[in-house]
Write a structure and sequence with these properties.
Length: 461
């Protein structure tokens, strides 16, 4: 068992028994569940919309090299710069190089999971650069020195009392402040940071191939401020975020907002297609887009797992997953949690160390049912399990146990040996490690043969 697997089991065991933690996340997910059906009412046929979105992403991923090259061509024609980053260290190296060239002492950044993936804040700290999260949820998590808890709602696991106490401890505010007052405190602090920062960093919800632009959607306006005030704007984005055309946003923006928060459309939607032009009065003097691979081409190479690159990071699968709702986001020990994280993390960071995430699933299919772009998530989880076994990432004891089970299952005389009580005692006594986190196996008191013979006997009377 790997160290990451042991850590996952330890954290999930603690969180599964934490009823206060479960109450908080179920309360917040409950609000989401109440809002999403209302947002879906804007679609005449929600399933058709999802199917169309999946087909568009299929086209984009199948022609990914062409789409990215078209984006680069159009974007650079307006003075933008594109950096192709093979991995996290390459991306960090380029960002540090840009910041040092600009004599940057502080950068502001909007909410971005991909910057969490490359651990941008830690790298900036190591290079003497202050990195400020400007999204309220991310700012709360940064104050508490925690990673985001959820793809869409970073501080979902915190109650308003938790946030008030955190602000009191870190910022010296009154612990009885209301959520509105707490928001104003953060706003006043962050407003000063925008004008002081030399560099602004954002992610991108979509990369638009035909116009050479990036689309950013948000509810607070902090992303707009992060890329408008600083003279240099850096976009860090995964290569899978590409969509072929500007017109595709008419479908993807409402889908993202509805499945992400239940809104018909998110409050602020921006398309940024380069640095400030000669006839424009605002915007950054320089804009750099870092296209990050970091294992995505490994997924692209796999014809089955390639489908996971369609994800638009709406977070719907997390909110639907019974595992996530019990153990929360931090137990996963990875940037991306929930079903989509369990699918892509073993392929991004290594099957040997993260195969356990694909096994931490009930395979109930609820994640697939709610996915905005109809990714067959539960089937991809099952495929990950199959791949981990084929690659030999299982213990001898586990392989032996399943081989014995297979032999017995295919041999009726062996299956008929002993009654249910004996089988319960033998199996539950032997496989103590396997059932440590599972309920006891409970065999039928009668074999199938016995029940079949009794049924025939009763029918022939």
């Amino acid at each position: 068992m790997s160290e990451t697997s042991e850590t996952f089991i330890a954290k999930s065991t603690i969180k599964a028994a934490d009823l206060d933690h479960r109450r908080k996340i179920n309360f917040n997910i409950g609000r989401y569940n109440a809002a999403v059906p209302q947002g879906k009412e804007q679609f005449n046929d929600i399933n058709l919309a999802r199917e169309r979105a999946k087909n568009i992403k299929w086209r984009a991923i199948e022609t990914l090299d062409q789409q990215l090259e078209e984006f680069e061509k159009v974007f650079t024609s307006r003075g933008g710069k594109v950096v192709w980053a093979e991995n996290a260290s390459h991306a960090i190296e380029e960002i540090v190089k840009i910041c040092k060239a600009k004599n940057c002492k502080m950068l502001v950044k909007s909410k971005s999971m991909v910057t969490e993936e490359i651990h941008l804040n830690k790298a900036m700290e190591e290079n003497g650069i202050e990195s400020i999260e400007t999204d309220l949820g991310e700012y709360i998590q940064q104050l508490d020195e925690e990673a985001p808890y959820h793809i869409v709602t970073p501080a979902m696991h915190k109650s308003k009392e938790d946030v008030a106490n955190l602000f009191a401890r870190k910022l010296g505010t009154d612990p009885k402040l209301t959520p509105t007052e707490l928001t104003l405190v953060a706003r006043n602090i962050l407003r000063e940071k925008y004008v002081q920062a030399e560099v602004g960093v954002t992610g991108a919800n979509f990369i638009i191939s035909d116009i050479g632009g990036v689309a950013v959607t948000e509810n607070e306006g902090n992303a707009r401020l992060s890329c408008a005030f600083p003279k240099t704007h850096i976009v860090v984005v995964g290569i899978e975020k590409i969509i072929p055309s500007l017109t595709d946003l008419a479908l993807f923006w409402p889908l993202l907002s509805t499945f992400g928060t239940g809104q018909k459309i998110t409050s602020y939607n921006s398309i940024i297609s380069g640095p400030r032009q000669p006839n424009e009065k605002d915007g950054p003097e320089e804009m750099i887009v870092i296209l990050l691979d970091n294992g995505r081409t490994n997924i692209l190479e796999n014809p089955v797992q390639r489908e996971s690159l369609y994800c638009i990071r709406c977070g719907a699968c997390l909110n639907a997953c019974p595992i996530y709702k019990n153990i929360g986001g931090h137990a996963y020990g990875a940037t991306y949690s929930g079903p989509i994280g369990s699918v892509i993390t073993p392929n991004l960071q290594g099957m040997e160390n993260f195969k356990h995430l694909s096994f931490a699933s009930s395979l109930c299919g609820n994640c697939t049912a709610v996915c905005a772009v109809k990714i067959n998530l539960h089937e991809l989880l099952l495929d990950n399990r199959k791949e981990s076994v084929e690659e030999g990432f299982t213990s001898f004891a586990e392989r032996a146990a399943w081989k014995i089970w297979k032999i017995a299952s295919l041999n009726r005389s062996m299956m008929n040996l002993g009654n249910g009580a004996i089988k319960n005692k033998v199996v539950n006594g032997l496989f103590t490690e396997w059932k440590k986190n599972r309920a006891d196996l409970n065999f039928s008191q009668k074999t199938f043969n016995q029940m079949w013979k009794e049924r025939l006997k009763n029918n022939n009377r």
